[in-house]
Amino acid sequence: MKILLDEKQIRKGRPIGLPYIGSKKKIAKKLIEIIKQNFGTDKTVYDLFGGGGAITLECKLQGLDVVYNDIDPIPGLMIQKILSEDREYLKTVICSREEFFQIRDKEDKTIDDHLKLLINSFANNNKGYLYSKERSDFKYKLAKEIIENHDCFGGYKQTDTFKKAVYENIKITQLQQLQQLEQLECFVKLKNTKVIPKIEIHNKDYKEFSDIKGSIIYLDPPYKNTSKVYNHNNLNHEEFFDWCKDMGKENIVLISEYDMPKDFECIFEFTKARSTLQCGTHNKKYEKLYMIK
Prior knowledge:
Blueprint: H1 28-39, E1 45-47, H2 54-61, E2 66-69, H3 73-83, H4 87-90, H5 97-104, H6 111-119, H7 133-149, H8 160-168, H9 176-193, E3 200-202, E4 216-219, H10 237-247, E5 252-257, E6 264-274, E7 286-292
Parallel strand pairs: 1-2, 1-4, 2-3, 4-5
Antiparallel strand pairs: 5-7, 6-7
């Protein structure tokens, strides 16, 4: 299938979504424009491995009807939480190294806890703290000082506090915690535009959507050999491929992958979006969009 894409029509501005492992934020704007230009805007989009919500939120921004699903309920709840809060709440999400590990080891975690683990962890893996043990206390205190005395969403590197710290300590080049907050602020801006009503969120296995007809099904499954990074550890890929082919008889099925079986064809390659995974065999490959032949 020949895919059309007038890149001048792609939405300007930041992509939106949680900073999730494997996030589709890098390709979301272009992907939704591909859908609009080739398949129209009158079909519901089912984002069945929704993760950090980049595709769902972009659909909402672009006025497409969309249903979010992820078998793991946590990311959907985090999305709803951020959309219900304001910038002052976002400032409470960063935490110290000590608090991070206390939260990580808790048996029962709140959604606030999960957000703190996501935002304050290295590579957003929810396991290791963002800063090294030697630098964590200094960087955290600096981030807190900027939050308390400046508009931390307006470019923290331009604040007098950060400039002074750089002058006195040349090893400080960035504060990843504040970079994460800047990403989350897009949610607040999104809510304030009033273009996003309540998002329809489900936590089902993808096969529970087998009765869908006349829709666009977007699938971003965990990649082979990397599933340990995800909460979809039991995905049977061969069974999944068969399901895609069956669903493609009465729907438009789009799949994000790096490689697919011969029954599928690559219809677009996102040459500016390399793998964001920290492990596995895909770090030198580009994101691709597939359909059934």
